[in-house]
């Protein structure tokens, strides 16, 4: 599927993760990329068709409706159900940077795309847009029990996100000396007579063992 600017509107499947719900549906748009669809919404909402709504942590069945108006302020991130090739003539050259995005109650790990020939502080300062693309993404929530899932791209709500970059996983115990933990054997310099293992303490005769 290719960028559809200037073409006839088509139905684009989307999955939206909001504050409380996972909303799956389709939107009619001339755009192909999910970031373009969300950023081009002039009214602060989008209207989906053939909608399935599932509440986090709910044991009830998902709700289905023919249409749904979704407030974009409540959308944490969106997942495109199809892959879109960006048009070469419209692309601004960018470089990927590994990042962890905190967007409570979710975490998103993937690659943000920043302008080249800048240090990271400057590049993050120039990272603008209501919804930002994160590619090669993994997202999950330990808080609400959402297992890890992967996606070619997700579009995160910039106003709701904290972007931590560069991101590297580290061992919190690395470099710490844990040999002094309690429960180890007593030191050789402790005071008091040595115990005689041949006799239990209560039965040891006076004057020592025989």
Structural summary, described in words:
The chain has 210 residues and is mainly beta. It has one domain. It contains two helices and ten strands; from the N terminus they run ββαβββββαβββ. The chain has helices at 34-39, 120-125, and strands spanning 10-18, 21-29, 45-55, 63-71, 75-80, 95-103, 106-114, 131-141, 146-157, 162-164. The protein has a ten-stranded antiparallel sheet. A hairpin with a 7-residue loop joins β3 and β4 (63-71). The radius of gyration is 29 Å and the shape is globular.
Mean pLDDT: 80
Number of domains: 1
How does the major sheet shape up? 10 strands, antiparallel
Proportion of helical residues: under 10%
C-alpha termini separation = 93 Å
Alpha plus pi helix count: 2
Question: In percent terms, what proportion of residues is strand?
Answer: 35-45%
Brief summary of the model shown:
The chain is mainly beta.
Topology readout:
Layout: E1 10-18, E2 21-29, H1 34-39, E3 45-55, E4 63-71, E5 75-80, E6 95-103, E7 106-114, H2 120-125, E8 131-141, E9 146-157, E10 162-164
Antiparallel strand pairs: 1-2, 1-5, 2-3, 3-4, 5-9, 6-7, 6-10, 7-8, 8-9
Name some characteristics of this structure:
210 residues; mainly beta
């Amino acid at each position: 599927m290719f960028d559809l600017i200037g073409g006839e509107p088509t139905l684009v499947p989307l999955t939206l993760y909001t504050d409380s719900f996972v909303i799956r549906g389709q939107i009619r748009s001339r755009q192909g990329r999910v970031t373009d669809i969300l950023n081009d919404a002039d009214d602060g909402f989008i209207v989906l068709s053939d909608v399935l709504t599932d509440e986090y942590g709910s044991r009830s069945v998902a709700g289905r409706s023919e249409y749904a108006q979704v407030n974009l302020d409540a959308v944490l991130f969106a997942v495109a159900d199809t892959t879109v090739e960006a048009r070469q003539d419209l692309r601004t050259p960018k470089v990927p940077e590994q990042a962890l995005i905190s967007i409570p109650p979710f975490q998103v790990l993937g690659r943000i795309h920043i302008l080249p020939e800048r240090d990271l502080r400057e590049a993050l300062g120039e990272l603008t847009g209501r919804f930002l693309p994160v590619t090669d993404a993994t997202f999950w929530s330990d808080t609400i029990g959402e297992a890890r899932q992967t996606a070619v791209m997700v579009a995160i709500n910039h106003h709701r996100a904290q972007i931590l970059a560069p991101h590297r996983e580290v061992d919190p115990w690395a470099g710490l000396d844990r040999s002094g933990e309690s429960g180890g054997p007593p030191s050789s310099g402790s005071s008091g007579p040595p115990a005689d293992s041949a006799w239990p303490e209560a039965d040891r005769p006076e004057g020592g063992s025989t």
